[in-house]
Structures are given as structure tokens and as C-alpha cells.
Amino acid sequence: MSLQVKNLTKKYGENTVVDKLSFNMGEPGVYALLGRNGAGKTTTIRIILGMLAHDGGEVLWNDKFLDPLTANVGYLAEERGLYPKYTLMDQMIYFAKLKKISDTEAKKRIKYWAEKLEVEEYLYPTTSATKAKSVKAKNGKPIKSRTADQLSKGNQQKIQLMASLISDPELIILDEPLSGLDPVNSDLFKKIIRECIAKEKYIIMSSHQMPTIEEFCSDITILNRGQAIVQGNLNEIKKGYGRVNMFVKSDQDIKPYIEEMNLNVLEETPAGYHIKVNGEEQATKFLTRLVEAKINVVKFELREPSLHEIFVEKVGANE
Amino acid sequence: MSKGNITGWKDVFSFTLKQNAKNKVLRVTTLILLIIAVAAVPVIMAFGESDDSTKDAFTVDVIYVADTTGSLMPGIQEIFGTDDRFANTTFLEANDADKIVDQLKNESSSDKKEMLMKIEYTEGAYTLTFTYGENTGLSRLTLEDIGDYINENFRKVIVSSYDLTPEAMELINKPVISRVENVSSLQKAEDTSGELTQREYNVSITFIMICIFLLAFGGEAIASSIVTEKSSKVIELLMTSIKPMAIVIGKVFAALVVILTQFTVVILGFLGSSIITNSIKSGEFVGFRIPSEISDMFTDILGTTEGIWYKLIIILVLIALGFVFFGVIAALAGATISKMDELAEGVKIYSMILVISAYICMAILMAGNIGSGAGGIVNAVLVIPFTSIFLLPGYLLLGKASVGTALIAILIQAAAIILLFKFVSNVYEYLIYHKGSPVKIKQIISISKQNSKTKKKGADRDE
Which of A74, B248, B263, B402 would be A169's cystine partner, CB 3.0–4.6 Å? Predict the structure, then answer.
């Protein structure tokens, strides 16, 4: 299986919001689409899913034009949506039906995901999930599955994730999946994403949470004003920068030594100095100088730039 | 309309229908309407007694009565001979109806207003045939009025003519059919003059009013249903499984089923209430009696028109298509808005179209009622999708429009519905991410054009 996005272009009048964007997913895994707000991530996703007409390019899934109606695609939209007044169970069965899943199979899958996402109490408000709607409460009235407007934002998001995964899709598109979640729910979502990776799903993820992207994604595209400004394997991109980020912490004043070597200080905090070096040679020279001067070095770290740093540098430079 | 575009509409339909059935507001509304329908019957009965004695006498000098049953002439003399409305009329027994017809044919003086009433009992029903000569100064409308009046009171004639034995009671309850013939043709010619009797006018206007009520109520329900997906933002999730056209089709049909079910419940309530009220009034159980306006019209048609059943089927198809047509226009109103708050503003155009269409039809009916007709305009109005639902079913039933006209109207209606569905889906798809104020008509047209172009470009590219 493979996903190929070729020269995707979208214009609104004279304004090009996605400009000849191309990327490939030849293997299962997570592909990240990054960018500032309005960079064109969601527009790209909508075009991939055929929801938005485009002005150029093509999207191929297994070398054929991607049709979400025939390909098994799961989508968690950035603008979360559920019917506010309909019961969650009805909605889930409906979404499953639209994906051509039988009622019986849908109910099995709903149960599976309800347990995984810890939302059983909203879909099956009784202790026994199998009795669901028929069980009567103490006052004699039947207990119904909850409606979406009775749920917190986080729980609604869980239900939406369930809706996007109910068809056991091969291609999963998650637009800002972790935004607005508390740390516990965020971990829950991450666990599910890990499971999807283990099941060899193709996942496209858009997020502003760089650590999360670094945790899951093998390949990335950073978009700025519709154009890909950084693209490729995340590790390769980082390697390309080299280990140029040096962090030094000392209980003595090291500022004169920094000035002596004319180093570029990115950030000075009580925790230490964050310094940009040319490479490992310059970093080693600086450490040797400190040791020679009998400076007590508490922490010394030389590393590749983080995704966050690459993002800020690249996007900032293009502004 | 490719199959892929509409795949899944049944799922949308059944889901929407199920959710509507669960909707408390809808249930309460239906209950209120049912209560009104049930309560309306006794109220109408209490206040609806009409007094024909206040009306003017008919301007006919002689009515020749050819009674083939041989038993009703005394009753006619007793009931109608003493009736104020026939104060200027003499009822004369005619043993040879054909001779009277010849007499009416050859009649040249307009001063002598004569007509023939032939009474037959065939196939379990009384048939009253009213024949007139064009040269006698009588008009079709006058005869229709006389026919209606005699028909309404004919049971009194039967009661007066027979002893009230069980057999006689059975005869009394047989339907009475009346029809009007012109001696020039001496056959039940299709009347395409567009002229309407008071009864035809009343029935047609009532039909239009019912249609307006249902379409106004249904239109808002459809528009609201269409905007639900956008306002709840669930549309993006749906779009990975289904095309906009399938959503629109499923929702339009579901809303129409809800409205028609609601209407049926109200009608059943009305019928049930009629049976109960009549039973209480008469002290014993009586079956349902269709209001005389409607029963008269039906018995007229059954007595004068061949192939009534296929006409009724055509009428049902016309009404169904008309409802779908207006349903799709309402869906267009829903497609142009993004929030529930904007619903009222969004359905303004729909309401305007509905009211203008109905007013045009009412104007034509009024022209027909005053005997002037509306000429060629009527033919156009009968086949235009916006107006055909209001006028054509009634005209077809009354024999004022031909089956051919109805078939043309059906074809035009079906084509318009398909085009409209495509148009609405285009607009709906294009405006899925629209968050501004409701879109104006000009914008809607340009959006549809633009979306079609982009789609075509995409399709060419994909090829």
C-alpha cells in the first residue's frame, strides 16, 4: 500500500493556499503535516479526502485516485462534530452503517472502542453494557445512551475518535488529535495511535505539539503559506543540522569564556546557557577551555536541534 | 446522477426518520394537531349548519323530470316543488327523455329556460343527469349549482318516496351521482374552459391551502435538517463515507415522510372524530360520512369519468413529485446557511417562492370561479413545476385538464427535480465550510457554476 500526493494545488482567487505540495507514504507509519495556523494543513487534508475541489495535482492510494467512499479512510476532523441531540449509540451505529458495517459488527466494535477509550458509561449507562437501553433505572424510566451535548469536550473528542476508527481504516487522518485534551486523555489517545502504528496503518497527523510529532512521526512536511519549506525523514532532517545545540550549566560564571570564544547564545536562563555552535569541534574546544580553567561543569549537552527549534527557525525565517 | 453520488441515501433517510420519530417537539406538535383535528369536527358541526333558504331562487323555468325508477316523481314534487329556491320553477314529468332532448336541441328562444333531469338507478347508485341547451339561456355554471343543490337534498326525495323499511333505508344510503350534459355534444365532454363552480372552487382552494400548510411546515423541517450537519460540524466525518447528494436526498425524503405521516395522523383523527361525533349525534354507531363537498365531487367524477383509478394514481404521482420539488428547494435554503440561528432568514426565499406560486394558482381559480377563465396561462401554470402541484391534481380530477397535460407535467417535474438535486448538492458541497451570513440567489448560481467547473476540471485531470 502507498499514499502519493503529487503537486497538490489549491487557490482561492489569486491566493494560493496550497502550492504544488507533494509527499509520499510508501510504508505504514505516521506522516506529520506541520505549520502555523493558516499554513494550509487542514486544506491539504480536505483535498486529500476529496472534500474540497482543487486546482491541480492528484492523490493516489495504491496507485489509484483516492476515493474515500471506496477506500477505507478514517478521519478525525479539526472541527470536531457530533449530533448534539442524538444518542451516542445511534450516532455510532449510523456512522458504521455509512461505512457498510453491519449492525452486529458495529455493536461489537463500539463496545471494543468504548472500553479502550473509557467511555462505556456514556454509551452504556448501566453497569451491564449488554443490557444498554432496556435496563430500567431506579425510578422505573429506561436509561438511554447519552447525547453528545451531555459530554465534556474531551469525552466528545473520544467519541469522535471512535467514529473515525470504527471502520478499522487503512488510512487514518488525524487533524490536531490531541488539542484540548487533558494529560490523561492525551496519553490515552497516544496509546491508541501507537496501537494503530503497530497494526501497520497509514496515518497522516497534523499537530502543533512538536514533542508528540517527534514521538510518532517518521516523516514530516512543514508548510508555510501553502508551500513545503521542510520535508523528509525527521531523523535525516535533524542529522542534516548536525549536533549544533549545546547546553551548558555551571555553578560558576562562564560568560567570559563564551565571549572569549565568540559563541552564539540562543538563550540564557537560570538553568544554564543554550548556545548554538558550528559543530562538535567547536563544542569540544569550549568544554576543554572550561575544564582547563577549572570551571565546575554541572551539565553539558550537545544535541541535534529539536523539531520545535527547526520549526521556529524555518517558519520564522520565511515570515 | 451517478450511482456513487447517491449511495447511502437510504441510510441517511432511515437515520433521519428514526431521529425525527424520537424528537419530542415533533411528537408534541403532532399531538396538538391531532387534538385540534379531533376537536374541530364537533365545533364545525355546531356552527357549520348552512341555511340555503337565504339564497336566491334558481333562474330556470321548467325542469323536465325523466324518472326511470318510476317512483321518485312524487317526492320531487313534494321536496323541490315547495322549495323556495325553485319558486320560479315548474317540475314536469317527462316520459320520453329523448323527445325532451330533441326539444332542447331545437330550442331557439332564450326566454324559455328549460332543462332535463334524468334519474337512473344503475350499478348500485342513483345517477342524475342534467341536460341543457345552449340556446335556452342557461349556463353550465347554473346547471352545476342546480345539480349540487338537488344532489345535496336528493335523499329527502327518496325518504319521501319510499316507506322507511330496511330495504328503503339501504336505498337511501346509496350514492347519488349527478352530471351535466350539453345537447350540442350529448356526451360528457371534457370541460377545458377553466370555468369553475363554487363547489369546485372551494375544493381547489382547500387543496391549495393544505398544500401550503404542509409545504411551509415541511420546508422548514427540511432546511433545518439539512443545516444540522453543518451546524453540528459532523459533515466532515460524513463526507468520508457519503456524497452530499445522498445526504440531501435522504434528508428531503425523510422530512417529507415525517410531514405526510403527521398529516395522515391528523386526517385519521379527523375521520375518527367524525365517526364518534356522528354516532353520538344520531344515538347509534354510524360509519364515516365524507363531507358532502368532497363526496359530491368524487361521485360526480366516478359517474362521468372513465379510468378514474389511473387518474388518481397520476394525481398521487403529481402530488408526490410536487412535494419533492418544493422539498429540494427547501434543501437549497438549508444549504445556504451554516447555523441554526440563520434558519428563518435562509427559508425566506423558499417561503416567497411557495407563496407566489400558490397565489398565481389562487388567482387562476378565482378567474375560473367568476366564469372568465384564464386562457392560455392556465396551460402553462399546469405544467410549470412551481405551480403544477397546486392546480393540476384538482384540474385533472375535475376533468379540466387532460391526462396528456398531466404526463407532460410529470416529465417536466421529474427533470426539474433531478436538476435541482444536482444544483443543491453542488451548492451544499461548495458551502460546507461557509461560515458567513446566508448566501444570496446570485451567489448561489455562481457558486453552482464554479463548483461544476472545478469538478469538471478535476474529472478531466483524473482521466
Answer: A74
CATH class as words, domain B52-182? alpha beta
B404: closest CA of chain A, how far (Å): 41
Distance, CA of A297 to CA of B443 (rounded, Å) = 69
Query: Are the beta carbons of B433 and A74 separated by less than 8 Å?
Result: no
Among B228, B239, B240, beta carbon nearest to A83: B228
Question: Which chain B residue has the Cα nearest residue A11?
Answer: B454
Residue of B nearest to A167 (CA): B241
Q: Which CATH number fits domain A3-71+170-238: 3.40.640.10, 3.30.1050.10, 3.40.50.150, 3.40.50.300?
A: 3.40.50.300
Are the beta carbons of A86 and B19 separated by less than 8 Å?
yes
Cβ-based contacts under 8 A for chains A and B = 76
Chain A residues with CB within 8 Å of chain B CB: 46, 49-56, 58, 65, 68-69, 73-75, 77, 79-84, 86, 90, 94-95, 97-99, 160, 163-164
Instruction: Give the residue from B236, B339, B447 with the most A CB atoms within 10 Å of its CB, the best one to mutate.
Output: B236
| Full strand arrangement of the beta sheet holding A219-224 | A73-76, A171-175, A202-206, A29-35, A219-224, A227-233
| All cell numbers assigned to B40 | 374541530
Contact yes or no for B237 and A95 at CB 8 A: yes
Q: List beta partners, residue B181.
A: B131
pLDDT digits (tens, 9 = 90+) for B267-310: 888 888 888 887 777 766 666 555 555 555 555 554 554 566 77
Residues of A in contact with B11 (CB under 8 A): 94, 97-98
SS3 state of residue A14: coil
pLDDT digits (tens, 9 = 90+) for B263-279: 889 888 888 888 888 77
- What is this structure's pTM? 0.74
**What are the b/e assignments for B330-354, b being 16+ CB within 10 Å?**
bbbbbbbbbeeebbeebbebbbebb
pLDDT for B194 equals 58
Residue A129, pLDDT > 50, answer no
Q: What does residue B328 show for φ and ψ, rounded to 5 degrees?
A: -70, -35
CB contact under 8 A, A90 and B241: no
Q: How far is B348 from chain A (nearest CA, A)?
A: 25
d(Cα A221, Cα A231) in Å, to the nearest integer? 4
Distance from CA of A161 to the nearest CA of B (A): 10
Among B157, B168, B159, which residue's Cα sits nearest to residue B128?
Answer: B157
Q: Residue A53: which of B228, B240, B451 has the nearest Cβ?
A: B451
Instruction: Give the C-alpha separation, A81 to A101, whole Å.
Output: 21
> In chain A, what residues touch B455 (CB-CB under 8 Å)?
53
Whole-number pLDDT of residue A257 = 94
Cβ-contact A68, A172 below 8 angstroms = no
- What is the CATH superfamily name and number for domain A243-303? ACT-like. Chain A, domain 2 (3.30.70.1150)
Domain boundaries, chain A: 3-71+170-238, 243-303
pLDDT tens per residue, range B317-365? 999 999 999 999 999 988 888 888 888 888 888 999 999 999 999 988 8
Residue in chain B nearest A66 by alpha carbon: B462
Does B15 sit within 8 Å of A99, measured CB to CB? no
The residues near B202 (Cβ < 8 Å, ≥ 6 apart) are: B293
* Domain residue extents for chain B: 3-42+198-462, 52-182
Task: Please state, for a pLDDT cut of 70, what percent of chain B lies above it.
Answer: 78
Which residues, other chains included, contact A190 with Cβ-Cβ below 8 Å and sequence gap of 6+?
A178, A212, A215, A216
Mean pLDDT, rounded, for A55-71: 91
pLDDT digits (tens, 9 = 90+) for B251-260: 999 988 998 8
* Residue B463 binned pLDDT confidence (cut-offs 50, 70, 90): low
Looking at per-residue pLDDT, the higher value among B3 and B186 belongs to B3
